[in-house]
Amino acid sequence: MDKAFFEGLSEEEARKKISELAGDYCELYHRRKEYTPGDHISYGGRFYDRREMENLVDSSLEFWLTAGRYVQEFEKKFAAWLGVKYCSTVNSGSSANLIAFMTLTSPLLKERAVKPGDEVITVAAGFPTTVSPIVQYGAVPVFVDVTVPGYNIDASRLEDAFCEGKTKAVMIAHTLGNPFDLAAVTEFCEKHGLWLIEDNCDALGSEYTLKGKKIKTGTAGHIGTSSFYPPHHMTMGEGGAVYTNDPLLHRIARSLRDWGRDCVCEPGQDNRCGHRYDGQYGQLPAGYDHKYVYSHLGYNLKITDMQAAVGVAQLEKIDSFTDLRREHHAYLLKGLSDLSDKLILPEAAKDSDPSWFGFMICCREGVDRTKLVRHLEDAGVQTRMLFSGNLIKHPCFDHLRDAQGVRYRVAGSLDNTDRIMQSGFWIGVYPGMTQSMMDVMIGEIHRGLQG
Ligand SMILES: Cc1ncc(COP(=O)(O)O)c(C=O)c1O
């Protein structure tokens, strides 16, 4: 290609033309390979077309690099799609959980702030980074058992886990897309004045009817979090989001994300409020540049505009992605329903319409999970554990185990959590699955149980 390609074109026209070429490239070279029996069936993956590639190239040619117009567009559209007021993108779902939890520790929340030693109710059957920020901060996770086959917190045990004066928050995920009992959990939180963080990383698009109103999960509590890592409901490669309806929580989350600063200017922007040199903060001299005033000891967890550009294209398709996830889950459920004497099959929570992340299975007594999973993997069907199974059995708890009751607490038994660790696994339902792939998955599970 020589410079003649650009002749007579404005910069914008040239960028558009190159982006369209990238779209053509995507169609030609990134075409989805037709599945043929014997191919590996992964549990999840990126699902995209020319729109993502066009946006990515458009953003890279613009070369803003850091958070810019695509980030602003994504945050606005994502919040609107969820039905919340405020959204902040961050560089992963784990960062979203970190920001969500640290937001609750802000001195701006005064007596409602979570302090070191305070207790946070959670579960051990899940992903570690729902729990890590609690421990890292020096608060005390209180582990409550989950139910089978809902795989979410057993809400009937919440009152037993509660400790007057100590319990300050509940931080739990909607497991594999299946909403936890939002009616019971929100009622419990309201009764005791607790914060609720919904880790919505695996449940984007799940719906729940709460107090007669259909809402999306992640929007019922004080803060919701998302992950945009490739197998998730939509992707930016790496990425995540924190969302809330509360302006103060939003302000704190933004501050923590953006180095802890007090100022709300976008990257590259100056004096948006017109009071850059007017204020007096902390013990700083009057008129100290507000751009460099820090109300928190924060982080930098922003995303690049290229990630957001991909996210904007993914968001256009999110409803079709969640529809496909629901269809695939239903197809697997039908195909495996004759195995309910050997396998515990998943059940959607009452009053919910899950946007499933995966299809969870627990082996019944007498069925060897490891043997079945080995069979499936050997047959090319990718499987996954329910993440940590039981987080407190992991090496990351070795140094904490002697401090049970101080650094963490277990409320009641974790029998179902242990059962999931020993006999549970899941398979994928992502939009890239086809009927023939699912037929192979169903067939191999039947075969694996015969052998
Ligand atoms: C429930 C849950 N929370 C948080 C995360 C972390 O997301 P990320 O991988 O983007 O850090 C995951 C990851 O899959 C998850 O499943």
CATH fold-type name of the largest domain: Aspartate Aminotransferase, domain 2
Oligomer: single chain
Helix content: 25-40%
Bound molecules: pyridoxal-5'-phosphate
Compute the CA-based radius of gyration. 24 Å
Major β-sheet strand ordering: 1-9-8-5-4-2-3-13
Chain-averaged pLDDT: 97
Number of helices: 13
Overall CATH class of the largest domain: Alpha Beta
Spatial separation of the terminal alpha carbons? 59 Å
Task: Give the biggest beta sheet.
Answer: 8 strands, mixed
What are the secondary-structure elements, in order, as H or E? HHHEHEHEHEHEEEEEHHHEEEHEHEH
Unreliable spans are none
Strand-residue proportion: 5-15%
Overall 3D shape? flat
Structural class: alpha/beta
CATH homologous superfamily heading of the largest domain: Type I PLP-dependent aspartate aminotransferase-like (Major domain)
What is the total number of structural domains?
Answer: 2
CATH architecture of the largest domain: 3-Layer(aba) Sandwich
Number of strands: 14
